[in-house]
Design a protein that fits this description.
With 480 residues, the chain is an alpha+beta fold. The chain has three domains: 5-212, Rossmann fold; 224-326, Uridine Diphospho-n-acetylenolpyruvylglucosamine Reductase, domain 3; 345-472, Phenylalanyl-trna Synthetase, Chain B, domain 3 (Phenylalanyl-tRNA Synthetase, Chain B, domain 3, 3-Layer(bba) Sandwich). 38% of the residues lie in helices and 19% in strands. A six-stranded mixed β-sheet has the order 3-2-1-4-6-5, with helices on both faces. Strands 7-8-11-10-9 form a five-stranded antiparallel β-sheet. A four-stranded antiparallel β-sheet has the order 12-16-19-20, with no helix packed on it. Helix 4 (83-90) crosses helix 5 (94-112), helix 6 (124-136) packs across helix 9 (197-210) and helix 12 (266-280) packs across helix 13.
Length: 480
């Protein structure tokens, strides 16, 4: 046993001696070594054994673990399930099915017993094998750095950590430890089966690689330690970028400022997208191609289409924002003015009209035309406008678009176009178009708030009557 095991348990795994630990014990040398290490170190433990029912002798293995627990006067909980049937039902590999069912059992037990952690007997050999599995899948830094002494598996529990105190011990060392401490582990025959990828890596790939470098396993282990430092640096950078670029977030949607997001290096963009997806769908397995679809949308500001990612998630751009959300997300409507009433609204000057999401329209007459012209020339806010009122009525209508609507945008010398074409050309968010408020006089559209006024009603040098309209956003919520 390493001399620094107490330090690993306390500092790396974050364990305390006054709270229960659920210890996964299969009966093999690794898990028995873990069990005895924690027991001798004075930690309160409860043994958890899961019978995968993949071998005829698996029930006997469970009884053996139970006997060991009884001899050492330790609590023990046995459970099991038909892993093969579960794998067939969920259309996943037997390895994945076994892991999912085993971890569900242990974390459920941890919640029921108010345990501080779930402990498993992963060794340095498991670390090397895991890194190679990630490498073969084309994993990024997160996969190549390997497993940590302490981490959260949010797909199973968002608060109780999993700890791996034996990550710096080789498998042969756990065998020796068990022999010295009078523990007789059993050997799982499925560990020799080449039907499982991990076993092929263990029995075929690693021995082959060791013919090139006899210390191959040690080299991989050193690499994981180096990459953990790099990963910590990346996480700090990611946290800063996340704080700067994310403008809103809930259980169904993460919203980025598209300008700020696009300024980051592509590698950081990938990690921001990945982080957002894993928050919305913990445990989602992300491939390079999925992330590249997102990156193409982020860096192509002409593309406003929605792109499907994975796990029911999608990404799309709206104005200066990029959303990553679930398929059924209730997207916010207070990002822009919306008119949700079925009928149109009457607008009388002066006056005020409430819109959806806290927005409102106000209007008034300006008695000094020269001042109105000066303000209009300097104005950069497309949600306010000054119109020549010479040929305008006393009251107006605020409504949504209708079939056949045409518009004569300012700057087109009075030429009209289909309103739908105007929306497309201005890149108005598609889901906002049906309820976007339009200021009208009769059948004529005078102003599309946030975009342009109608050319015929622009202020002219001779304008003597002026009406001012503004659409204002809801006030920002102040958080203390």
């Amino acid at each position: 046993m390493p001399e620094n095991i107490e330090t690993i348990l306390r500092d790396e795994c974050g364990l305390v001696k006054d709270r229960l630990i659920i210890v996964g014990v299969s009966g093999g040398p690794d898990s028995l070594c873990l069990m005895e290490t924690l027991r001798q170190a004075g930690y309160p433990i409860l043994i958890a054994h899961f019978d995968h029912q993949l071998r005829a002798e698996s029930a006997e293995d469970a009884r053996t673990v139970e006997k060991i627990a009884a001899r050492l006067m330790l609590g023990c909980v046995i459970d099991g399930a038909d892993v093969r049937a579960h794998a067939d039902q969920e259309k996943i590999s037997i390895e994945e099915a076994a892991r999912n069912l085993r971890y569900r059992f242990m974390f459920k037990l941890a919640r029921e017993r108010n345990a501080q952690a779930v402990a498993v007997g992963h060794t340095a050999d498991d670390q090397v094998e895991t890194v190679l599995m990630h490498f073969l899948r084309g994993s990024a830094l997160t996969g190549l750095k390997g497993m940590a002494y302490r981490s959260l598996l949010k797909i199973f529990d968002s608060q109780i950590p999993i700890v791996r105190p034996l990550l710096n011990m080789w498998r042969e060392e756990t065998v020796v430890y068990c022999a010295v401490n009078g523990l007789r582990p059993h050997y799982d025959s499925t560990n020799d089966s080449l039907n499982f990828q991990r076993n092929r890596i263990r029995h075929l790939l690693i021995p082959n690689l060791e013919s090139y470098n006899p210390k191959f396993r040690e080299a991989v282990l050193r690499m994981t330690e180096l990459l953990k430092g790099d990963h910590a640096f990346l996480m700090e950078t990611l946290e800063n970028a996340w704080r700067d670029t994310v403008t809103a977030m809930d259980e169904e949607i993460v919203t980025f400022d598209s300008d700020l997001l696009s300024k980051h290096a592509v590698g950081l963009q990938r990690n921001l997208v990945k982080h957002a997806m894993q928050i919305l769908r913990p445990g989602v397995d992300l491939s390079f191609s999925v992330l590249e679809r997102a990156i193409r949308l982020i860096n192509d500001d002409t593309n406003s289409a929605r792109v499907d990612l994975k796990g029911g998630l999608r990404i799309f751009r709206e104005l200066n924002q990029i959303h990553i959300c679930t398929a059924g997300a209730e997207l916010p409507i207070n990002l822009w003015p919306q008119l949700t009433v079925a009928e149109s609204l009457s607008v009388t000057v002066p006056g005020q009209v409430a819109l959806a999401g806290g927005w409102k329209l106000t209007c008034e007459r300006w008695r000094i035309p020269a001042l109105a012209k000066e303000q209009a020339e300097r104005n950069e806010d497309q949600f306010q406008v000054w119109l020549d009122a010479e040929n305008l009525p006393e009251s107006f209508e605020l409504r949504t678009r209708r079939q056949g609507d045409r518009f004569s945008p300012f700057g087109m010398d009075g030429h009209s176009q289909k309103l739908s074409d105007f929306f497309v050309n201005e890149k108005m968010p598609q889901r906002a178009r049906d309820h976007w408020p339009l200021l009208c006089a009769g059948n004529e559209i005078l102003w599309v708030p946030g975009y342009r006024s109608a050319h015929p009603y622009r202020l002219k040098a001779a304008s003597q009557k002026v009406i001012y309209f503004s659409v204002t956003r809801p006030p920002e919520k102040v958080t203390e």
